[in-house]
Write a structure and sequence with these properties.
CATH class of the largest domain: Alpha Beta
Pfam families: LacI, Peripla_BP_3
Shape: elongated
Helix content: 40-55%
Protein name: Ribose operon transcriptional repressor RbsR
Number of domains: 3
Distance between the termini: 77 Å
CATH superfamily of the largest domain: Response regulator
Organism: Amycolatopsis dongchuanensis
Number of strands: 12
Keywords: DNA-binding, Transcription, Transcription regulation
CATH topology of the largest domain: Rossmann fold
Order of helices and strands: HHHHEHEHEHEEHEHEHEHEEHEE
Strand order of the largest sheet: 2-1-3-4-5-11
Length: 333
């Protein structure tokens, strides 16, 4: 069997020194090589079907070029988009994402975190944060590089990339007000998560403290349906519902159908996230658009910067959101 090509083979074919070929093929150092030379090396590597020896590289750099990614629920359609953004950003720098699903279970999150740590990942991108999270406190105490995605903690231990949730809720409330709605309600996400807390606080601020807020046990369709039943039992006159996310909104739409209520003629509903296919619902869902791919890409870039400069202070990147108006909102009867 032929031996696989080596970096020396690539350098020989490209007519450069082995160190030059190595720099040209490493995304972190390719900028140090003349562009024409780099193209020649890449062409030689492609011709020889050369694959870098990541084990040897990790031994020389003390890095594995891998990043652990913890997501709460891969069945939620927004998280594959976040992961795709992470992968696209990491690929550009020669890194690989190792993905773990936690099912929103803190014990499982801890086990997955330790399993990835045992594989010597260079850092973590975590989308499972709770406002008070012992796992993140432990990671901070151990000096592990972490960037939070979509959710944050009350105490800013790590850099974070989030959407401007408060502005998104404000836009939703303003839209319903402009349509003439005065009896607004909020089906909130879990208060133990920053997204649930921030969105509920913003709703109260813009809709008024007297507007009902019903907390959902989780960001799921089932929890949304359960909360919507409680809302309609206790506040049957509500004409506009702002949901904590699109899955909760789906549960609300189900309950409206159960009770013979028309959306949007009887009750308008607004979601949050703008998941794929919500524009195909009947009626199409008005929702706050979150740039999930960009959330992941920005977080990955922040982590790479943190790995290069671990002394940098934590910072938060807040991405702008906007309301997408569709058929699930209309003036009240």
């Amino acid at each position: 069997m032929d031996k696989p090509p080596t970096i020396a083979d690539v350098a020989k074919l490209a007519g450069v020194h082995k160190a030059t070929a190595s720099r040209a093929l490493n995304p972190r150092t390719s900028g140090q090589v003349n562009a024409a030379t780099a193209r020649r090396v890449l062409t030689a590597a492609k011709r020889l079907r050369y694959q870098p020896n990541t084990v040897a590289r990790s031994l020389s750099t003390n890095r594995s070029a891998t990043v652990g990614v913890l997501v709460p629920d891969l069945t939620n359609p927004l998280f594959p988009l976040v992961v795709r953004g992470i992968e696209d950003a990491l690929d550009n720098q020669g890194y690989t994402a190792l993905l773990a699903n936690t099912d929103n279970d803190p014990e499982r999150a801890g086990a997955q975190f330790d399993a990835l740590l045992s594989r010597r990942v260079d850092g973590f991108l975590i989308a499972t944060a709770r406002r008070e999270d012992p796992l993140l406190t432990r990671a901070h105490d151990q000096g592990i590089a972490v960037v939070l995605v979509n959710r944050s903690t009350d105490v800013p231990l790590f850099p974070a990339v989030t959407g401007d949730d408060a502005a998104g809720i404000a836009a939703a409330v303003e839209h319903l007000r402009d349509l003439g709605h005065r009896r607004l309600a909020h089906l909130a996400g879990p208060a133990g998560m920053s997204t649930g807390s921030v969105r509920a606080r913003a709703f109260r601020q813009h809709a008024g403290e007297c507007a009902p807020v019903v907390e959902c046990a989780s960001y799921t369709e089932e929890a949304g349906a359960e909360a919507a039943r409680r809302l309609l039992d206790e506040h049957p006159g509500s004409t506009g519902i702002v949901a904590g996310n699109d899955m909760i909104a789906l549960g609300a739409l189900q309950v409206l159908r159960e009770r013979g209520l028309d959306c949007p003629q009887d009750v308008s509903v607004i979601g949050f996230n703008d998941m794929r296919f919500v524009d195909k619902l009947v009626p199409p869902l008005t929702t706050v658009h979150v740039p999930h791919h960009r959330l992941g890409a920005e977080a990955a870039q922040l982590l790479l910067e943190q790995l290069d400069r671990p002394d940098r202070a934590p910072k938060t990147v807040t991405l702008p959101l906007h309301l997408v108006v569709r058929g699930s909102t209309a003036p009240p009867r």
